[in-house]
UniProtKB/TrEMBL annotation:
The protein, known as: AsnC family transcriptional regulator
Keyword Cell membrane found: no
GO cellular component assignments: cytosol
Gene Ontology terms, MF aspect: sequence-specific DNA binding
Lineage: Bacteria, Pseudomonadati, Pseudomonadota, Gammaproteobacteria, Pseudomonadales
Length: 156
């Protein structure tokens, strides 16, 4: 995707929306110093350009009964386009997998997995990860505590 040129007002809008995605257009316009119509047009343009990709609610994993966070490193036996694409499709379909990255280094993929408890993680491994064709190695790193978890991008 091509990088979009953002001016100072666009960046102020994006910063405000990242802090509160439910902010009214009226209040957003006041915060950034635009008329509501001009603000709405800019937000719409940012959405259409693909800068703003959606709006969501942040949920507390513990309150939702999903308190165990595991960073899973997957290494492949072989690297072919078809086998890699199949693993990407399968892993992307698992609701327990919140993030999946293709990486370099000691693994081929890193997954961020959230489950209720260790028994659930054991089932996840046995029923899903270990059934994937072409996986050579799985390493699990259990998060002891969360230091930082944000989706907020620096916009300045």
């Amino acid at each position: 995707m091509k990088q979009v040129e953002l001016d100072k007002l666009d960046r102020r809008i994006l910063d405000a929306l990242q802090q509160d995605g439910r902010i009214s257009n009226q209040l957003l316009a006041e915060q950034v110093g635009l008329s509501p119509a001009a603000c709405w047009r800019r937000v719409r343009a940012l959405e259409e350009a693909g800068v703003i990709t959606g709006y969501t609610a942040k949920l507390c994993p513990e309150a939702m009964g999903q308190g165990l966070c595991v960073l899973v490193n997957l290494s492949l036996q072989r690297h072919t386009i078809d086998s890699t694409a199949e693993i990407e499709r399968e892993v992307s379909s698992y609701p327990e997998v919140l993030q999946c990255f293709a990486v370099t280094g000691n693994a081929d993929f890193v997954l961020r997995v959230v489950v209720p408890d260790m028994a659930s993680y054991d089932r996840f491994l046995n029923e899903k990860i270990f059934t994937l064709k072409g996986i050579a190695q799985v390493n699990s790193n259990f998060a002891l505590r969360e230091i930082k978890n944000t989706l907020t991008l620096p916009v300045s």
